[in-house]
Predict the 3D structure of the following.
Amino acid sequence: MSQTLNTESILALAPDAGSAANARKLATPGKWPSLNALEGVLWGSVRAAARRRT
């Protein structure tokens, strides 16, 4: 089974609209300093902003 990865197919996997909105914020190359792929599997590490504690 082959699946085409595009914005619509990936966002369709989100459980709700809020999750999809957060995913869109992460969908920029600068957030992903490390991306890898092997035999159809993708993985990487995301650079997220640190939360401030007050």
